[in-house]
Design goal:
Layout lengths: L1 H27 L2 E2 L2 E2 L6 H7 L4 H10 L2 H4 L5 E6 L1 H5 L5 H5 L5 H9 L2 E3 L4 H10 L3 E5 L5 E7 L2 E5 L5 E11 L2 E6 L7
Parallel strand pairs: 3-9
Antiparallel strand pairs: 1-2, 3-4, 5-6, 6-7, 7-8, 8-9
Helix pairs in contact: 3-7
Length: 187
């Protein structure tokens, strides 16, 4: 009987250790689009592994921004999902991906990028300092406004559209990604 208890105790201990290690790995390497995001990889390297960001990756490649987003940074990227791109008017993505529209595509994509590393704690501090709203200057030269809606971080663009951060604080070697559910549009 003592032997059975000892074996059960060992089994429970191994299970607890396994769950703890798995939870730590999930914290250190959150899952986005079915793939682990590694803090040792760049924004582009991780995004390429996310099944939810294939449209974004294709757009980054078409705009010639791969080298930039693999650079040292740090960058904060509000990364729209494939579903976010699908919510744009029909034909918008196809039109933006055409070589003759590279300048507009670049403007839209760099409007989702802020120089610096703003995790959710840093954004919360800026929002509190701004009495409920923080203003961020994007790499494209535009402005984004970040605010809270209950426990959600919401980003408003220059056209008045809003996007909710659905996954925050996906740390990268050259910054941080916040997954968003809408494409942000500059003026």
């Amino acid at each position: 009987m003592k032997r059975l208890y000892a074996m059960l105790f060992m089994l429970v201990a191994m299970l607890v250790a396994s769950v703890t290690a798995s939870a730590q790995m999930m914290k250190d390497n959150p899952m986005v689009g079915g793939a682990a995001m590694y803090p040792t990889k760049t924004i582009v390297d991780n995004a390429m592994n996310s099944a939810d960001h294939t449209t974004l990756v294709a757009a980054v490649k078409a705009a010639g921004l791969v080298d930039t987003l693999q650079g040292k940074g740090p960058f904060t990227v509000f990364a729209p999902t494939n579903t976010a791109f699908e919510q744009l008017p029909a034909g918008t993505v196809d039109s933006l991906l055409k070589p003759e529209n590279k300048a507009m595509l670049t403007k839209v994509l760099t409007y989702h990028v802020v120089a610096g590393k703003y995790d959710s704690q840093a954004l919360a501090k800026l929002i509190a300092k701004g009495k409920g709203k923080a203003q961020l200057k994007t790499v494209s030269g535009g402005t984004l406004w970040v605010m809270m809606d209950g426990s959600n971080v919401v980003v408003r663009d220059e056209k008045g559209g809003t996007s909710t951060v659905t996954t925050a604080d996906v740390f990268q070697s050259n910054g941080v990604i916040h997954v968003v559910n809408m494409v942000l549009m500059p003026k």
